[in-house]
Each structure stands twice: as C-alpha cells, then as structure tokens.
Amino acid sequence: MEKKIALIRGDGIGPEIIVQAVKVLDQVARVYGHSFSYTDVDMGGNAIDKWGDPLPQAELEKCLASDSVLLGAVGGPKWNDVPGPMRPEKGLLRLRAAMEVYSNNRPAKIWPQLASASPLKPELVEKGIDFIIVRELTGGIYFGSHSTRQEGGQAVAEDILTYSAEEIRRIGRIGFETARKRKGRLCSVEKSNVLDSSRLWKKVMHELAGEYPDVVLSDMLVDNCAMQIVRDPSQFDVIVTENMFGDILSDEASMITGSIGTIPSSSLGATTRGLYEPIHGSAPDIAGQDAANPIGTILAAGMMLRFSFDMEREADAIEQAVSDTLDAGFRTADILSSTDCVKVGCTRMGEEIANRIQ
Ligand code: NAD
C-alpha cells in the first residue's frame, strides 16, 4: 500500500520524537511491503519564526492533501508573549478545524511493565486501568469568541462556550460506538448543575441512548469525574465529554498510567484522514537533550495505521514491539523506576522499538 503522510515536527521535543516514529514506520514499511512518503509541514513556533504565521495556508494545504497527519508537539516559552491569534496553539486549533476532526480519542491504559510508575496505590492499579476518553475537539469554549475589554476602570475578559445539538450528537455517537466495541459502558461527563450547554449535552446523550440499547449510559459531573479517575479508575470503560473538560481529564488520566510520554491520541472526523499525536506538549524543559520518551508518538503512528490505513496487523506489530522493548528493560528517564532497567535516550528507545517490528 502507498500512503502519503504529512509530518509536523513542531517545536521543543517534537522533531526528536517524530524522527523515532518515522524510524518505526519505515521498518513497518520494509517488513510488510508498504511505501510511506513524507511531506514536512511547518506549524507552531517554528512557523511563526519562518513565516510569521503559526500555520500558513500553504502548509495547511499539505495536510489536507495527505492521507494522514502525524504531529509531534508545538509551542514553547519563546512564543508565550505573542498576541492571541498568532500563538503556536492557534495553528493546531486551525488545523483541527480545517481537517474537521471533531473526535479526539485518548486511551488511558496502563502497561503492566510500567505499573510501578503510576502514582496511584498498587491496590488501585491492580484493579486495572483501561479506558478511553472521547473528547469533542472542534467546538465549545476553545472555539468560541474571546475578548478582553475595559469596564468600570478594570480589564474584563470573556470566552464564549457554545454547542449545538448536532455537534453533541455526532460526538455522542462516537462515544456509543466506541463503548459498543469495548465493555459497553459509556459515562457522559458534563456540568449540568451549572451550565446550559451541559444540560443540552445530557439531554442529547439520553436521546441517543435509545439507539444503543446494548450500551449502559451513566452521567457524571466533571468535578466528580476528576475525583473518580484517581479514586477508582477501574470503574470507567468509555468517557465522552466536551472539549475543555476532555482536555483536562485526559491529562489527569494519562498521569495515572505512569507517564504522559507514553500516551497517543487520534483525532478523526467524517473521513479516514486523521490527525495523530502524543498527548503531551513540546516539553521545552528537556528539548534537545535526547531525553524525551518517543513511545506516545510511536503508538500514535500505530493508531494511524489502524484507524486511517486499515493496517491492523501492522498496528499490532508496533504495540507488540513497544511491549517487547519494555519487557527487555529499556526505559527513558520519565518511566525509569527500577535499577534493573536500562536507561536510554529518545534515539535508542526508537531504535530498540524499530528493531523489534516483526
Ligand atoms: P508538556 O506536556 O510539554 O510537559 C509537561 C511535563 O511532562 C514536562 O515536565 C515535560 O518534560 C514532561 N514530558 C512531556 N512529554 C514528555 C515526553 N515525551 N517524555 C518525557 N517527558 C515528557 O506540557 P507543558 O510544559 O505544559 O507545555 C509545554 C508547551 O507545549 C507549551 O507551550 C504548551 O502550550 C505546549 N503544548 C502543546 C501541545 C500540542 O502540541 N498538542 C499540547 C500541550 C501543550
């Protein structure tokens, strides 16, 4: 199979981790007889420096012309003070909107080899952590209007949160479909005791429930959910929630699995072209030190093969190679918890995983 992949290396550790994912993809191509071609796309702080724009239209077009997009991470302190519309993250929001990827899926699953890296008590980890957060990605407060004005002699800031029933329905369906393929339990997370948008969210979810009698729907307020994720994560199968709540809860969920560096995510819409990335940011504190964990990005490449290219065996091979590499004792600094393990850098971790692709 021939596939065109747009690569957004981005800022900070982004370029380092993308190189490792490409190494693994190239090995998959060799072993399974595929041809992957790559097109580099400038986005984020580096694009601001080069083009004066976090995602110039010509760079965006390269993504839209590809079969899928693999992203490292964007942003960093260098661009903290640039004005709102020019911030690196704006490039990412523009990309998600243009690709119409409204569904972000983030697995929170603990690798048995990394159980000791979880900050939760062993008895909680032993009950199992294996759930998915389905997060709405192109609506809500991040996409509403933002303004700051002077009122009564002081600054007043406003961010607007809007959701239509249709926006909720289409992400709700992804939640139900995902639960149907798993253990059949869907938890809808909102703040319906305060927000109108959440009351509409809850109403639409319950309307949809009639179409999915095989899925058990439950409701949870977002503040309670944040607590339950650390109190007993084994209770969750699939969580479906709006953009900002999903952003926050998925970072929390990643932490209980050991390291933010190991978690991939996929963003999909109505077509098979997806946006795949690790869930972490550009980690400026460790950039350029060969210290980043590339596993999240490598697993994101695996998700791309599974969900966009229909390459199940190849995706399984990547997950198995990661597992075998962890079994062999290789650890980057962020997941190193035992002296029996071999501490490696980003490059070596990528090589060890690529060499185990079968
Ligand atoms: P971050 O995820 O970059 O880093 C948080 C902590 O986790 C840091 O200590 C970092 O060293 C560590 N970490 C992250 N990824 C790691 C990896 N692969 N291996 C080892 N350790 C890792 O979050 P932050 O510090 O809040 O943000 C830094 C920058 O990234 C900011 O400019 C932010 O806006 C941006 N950001 C970008 C994205 C994205 O591109 N999708 C997402 C989140 C944050």
The biggest beta sheet reads:
10 strands, mixed
The amount of helix comes to: 40-55%
- By secondary-structure content and strand pairing, the structural class works out as alpha/beta
Element-level helix/strand string? EHEHHEHEHEEEHEHEHEHEEHHEEH
How would you name the CATH homologous superfamily of the largest domain? Isopropylmalate Dehydrogenase
What does this structure look like?
This protein has helices at residues 14-32, 45-51, 57-64, 88-99, 122-126, 165-180, 196-209, 222-231, 243-256, 295-307, 312-327, 346-355; strands at residues 2-10, 35-40, 68-73, 103-109, 130-136, 146-151, 154-159, 185-190, 216-221, 238-241, 264-268, 275-278, 330-331, 342-343. By secondary structure, the protein is α/β, with parallel strands linked by helices. The protein has two domains: 1-115 and 259-358, Isopropylmalate Dehydrogenase, CATH 3.40.718.10; 119-256, Isopropylmalate Dehydrogenase, CATH 3.40.718. The two termini are 17 Å apart. Nicotinamide-adenine-dinucleotide (NAD) is lined by residues 13, 73-76, 89, 92, 260-261, 277, 280-286, 292-293, 296, 334.
Summarize the structure.
This protein is an alpha/beta fold and 358 residues long. Helix content is 40%, strand content 21%.
SSE diagram, text form:
Blueprint: E1 2-10, H1 14-32, E2 35-40, H2 45-51, H3 57-64, E3 68-73, H4 88-99, E4 103-109, H5 122-126, E5 130-136, E6 146-151, E7 154-159, H6 165-180, E8 185-190, H7 196-209, E9 216-221, H8 222-231, E10 238-241, H9 243-256, E11 264-268, E12 275-278, H10 295-307, H11 312-327, E13 330-331, E14 342-343, H12 346-355
Bound molecules: nicotinamide-adenine-dinucleotide.
